[in-house]
Amino acid sequence: QVQLVESGGGLVQAGGSLRLSCKASGIFFGLYTMGWYRQAPGKQRELVASMTTGGITNYVDSVKGRFSVSRVDAKNTVYLQMDSLKPEDTAVYHCNAHRPMNGQDYWGQGTQVTVSP
Q1: How far is residue 33's CA from residue 17's CA, in Å, rounded to a whole number?
Q2: 19: Cβ–Cβ under 8 A, 6 or more apart, which residues?
Q3: Per-residue confidence (pLDDT) for residue 68, from 0 to 100
Q4: What pLDDT shows up at residue 9?
Q5: How far apart are alpha carbons 61 and 1 in whole angstroms?
Q6: Which of 28, 30, 83, 90 has the maximum number of C-beta atoms within 10 A of its C-beta?
């Protein structure tokens, strides 16, 4: 059974930091591109950051220079370090595991991030 379990969300003031973690089980972690998506109320889900198995990263423009994605394959875990948080970063953040070879996708349940002004 595949599970992606996020943690680290919460309430923070603008300018603060949070670190999200996502631990995967039931998959061969090293075969998957790991990503973080977010969905704010009334908005579509968007890709925030991702890291391939080779360590190539991708960020949405709005978080470049503020967020950093990393992974530790030995721990089956991907992280999202979020600094200089803004109220517009408020959303539910979901972890995603994507296998490029066959398009297989798995999702976590999400963790709420709320940034107060």
Answers
A1: 24
A2: 8, 79, 80, 81, 82
A3: 98
A4: 97
A5: 34
A6: 90
Which tokens go with 80?
């999202």
Neighbours of 66 (CB within 10 A): 15
CA distance 70 to 50: 8
Q: Which helix (H) or strand (E) holds 95?
A: strand 91-99
pLDDT-derived band at 10 (thresholds 50, 70, 90) equals very high
Token pair 């296998």: residue: 99
Express each pLDDT in 70-92 by its tens digit.
999 999 999 999 999 999 999 99
Extract the tokens encoding 17.
Answer: 């930091």
Contact 43, 95 (CB under 8 A): no
What does the block give as tokens for 100? 């490029």
Q: Which helix (H) or strand (E) holds 115?
A: strand 111-116
